[in-house]
Amino acid sequence: MRRATVFLLLAMTFEACTNPKQKKTVPAEPNAQVQTEEFRTKSGKVFQVLVDKSISASLNNVIVITREFENANDTFKLGAIDPVETIFLSDLDGNGFEELYLVSRSAGSGSYANLYGFASNRDKSVSPIYIPPISEKQLEKGERFEGFMGHNTFKIENGKLVNEFPVYLKSDTNANPTGGKREVIYGLIAGEAGWRLVSSQN
Q1: The domain 31-201: what is its CATH number?
Q2: From CA 74, how far away is CA 69, in angstroms rounded?
Q3: Per its UniProt record, what InterPro entries does this chain match (predicted)?
């Protein structure tokens, strides 16, 4: 009996020591609805995205984990954000190192799509990309986001990140924009404080 007890304790200790990564990624809630996806870049680095949908129908808890980068692997907690709609890799600046982009969409009537990005520092490590919010100035007449009221879509087109949205005129209802469509193009630049997306009207 004593030998069986010792064997059981050793087996439990071995399992605990050989599964440290598993313990980090398993959610605390036993009934959590967690979707896990891995995205491997062309250079062989890995972004793991965990999307916990158990919070509510209108929020996801999102974590991005990086693996196999040369100097540092990190965990980025986005917290509770709008439901994730799509995730993709792209090399917007053409430097040979792909970035990860996540698109979320609000559950409200405006159905606003929001973007989150993570850039590879030449495969040594990863940094979040700063994505400037749309300013009041950019919504003014003649500016690139004039008539913007949500219902936008982010997509990669000819190697560029495009934000396409219907244009609302002053008399339009939320369900019926009549101003056509507009595209805003984003480019990725490396600034002094880190990576940044910059926008320009198509």
Answers
A1: 2.40.128.460
A2: 9
A3: PliI_sf
